[in-house]
Each structure stands twice: as C-alpha cells, then as structure tokens.
Amino acid sequence: MEMIMRFVIFLAVFVCPVVPLISTPYSPDFHFSILEEQPIGTYVGRIQGTACPTNKIYSLFPASTPFAINQNGGITTTQLLDREKSSIYRLMVQEKCGGTTVYFTVYISILDVNDNAPIFFKSHDETLLSVNSPVGTIVYTSIAYDVDTGVNSQIQYSLQQLDPPLFAINPYTGMITLSAPMNADFRSRTLTIIATDGGIPPLSNKMTLQIHITVP
C-alpha cells in the first residue's frame, strides 16, 4: 500500500510542470477609426502595450495592409483609404520585449466622407403621355443610388423646371406627376432630373427624360 501511494504522488509531480508550456499571451483588442481619403502618414492610434521595462519591438501583420507601426506603438497610414473598397481592417500586432512575445488584435474602422455623387440607373430615358391626361397623372419614376453611407447617401430629387412648369417631382421617391393641364399644341417635352445627396458639401447628378405627348 505504501508503495502505491508513493507512485501516485510521483506521477502527479511529474505531470503538473507541463501545463504552463501550452499558454500564449494575448491582450484585449484595440479599436480605432479614421476618415477615408486622409493623407498618407495620418495617425490612427497607439498600442498601449505591456509594462515592459526594456525596449519593445513592434511588428504589424499582415504586412500588405495600408498601415505601419513605429517602435512607440503608433499606427499610421501608408496609403489613401477608400471605405467603399474596405470599411474595416483586422490587424495583428506583435510586441517583443526581452524574451516575451505578446499579440494584440487591432480593428480599424474606415469612416465615410462624401466622395461619391448619386448615380442614376439611366442617364436618359423616354416615356409617353397622353395630352388628355388629368393633373396628378404619374408620368415617370426616377431612381438613383449613392454608395456612401448615412446622410451622405440620402438622396433628394428635383426638376430643372420648364417654363411654364408642367410637372412636379416627389423629392423623396423621384416620382414625377403632371401638375398642370396640357393642350393639343404640346408635342414633346424634355425634363432634367437632379439627384442631390445630403453630404456637406452636397454632390449631385442629372438625367434627362424625353416625354412624348400623344394626341388621340
């Protein structure tokens, strides 16, 4: 019995020292944000690493990302950033200090600037409208989109009006309606439709609509 107890105690002491060897030090994540299209070399943020008393050596992975890190842990841009191509980057930072290596996960969000004007699905279109159509008749619905985000992507529609004005447009839906009665002398009208986004400064684009007036 005494021999068995000695064997068990010896086995336990032998196994325990192996456990710490499988651990790898990782830090909490870092989150930064930066506006797109900022000059190369723009400061993004700084890694607050470990309280290591000796000189630290930082490395950034993958190396192909448009960012660099200096030996103070400061991250800067190396390229112009385009949110429409990539809106967030996930990076790995390695910190070496003496014989210790620590890894940090860094998320960099790219914020939108108003760098894209609205785009119509068609730059020109045509439609038919009877001369006897009553006021309020739906003539056409224009559709545009904007690849920016937030208020920069919000579109309002307007018309470059005729003289006299015959048509109205809903600023939010792009729906064009007849706003005044027509007479038999009307044959064709060309409207210029304008889509303007909500950015500062706002950007806009145009399309033309050819309206052919039909007579019974």
From TrEMBL:
Its main location: membrane. Keywords: Calcium, Membrane, Repeat, Signal, Transmembrane, Transmembrane helix. It is found in: Membrane. Residues 1-23 form the signal peptide. Residues 26-120, 132-213 form the Cadherin domain. It comes from the Eukaryota. This is Cadherin domain-containing protein. It comes from Tegillarca granosa (Malaysian cockle).
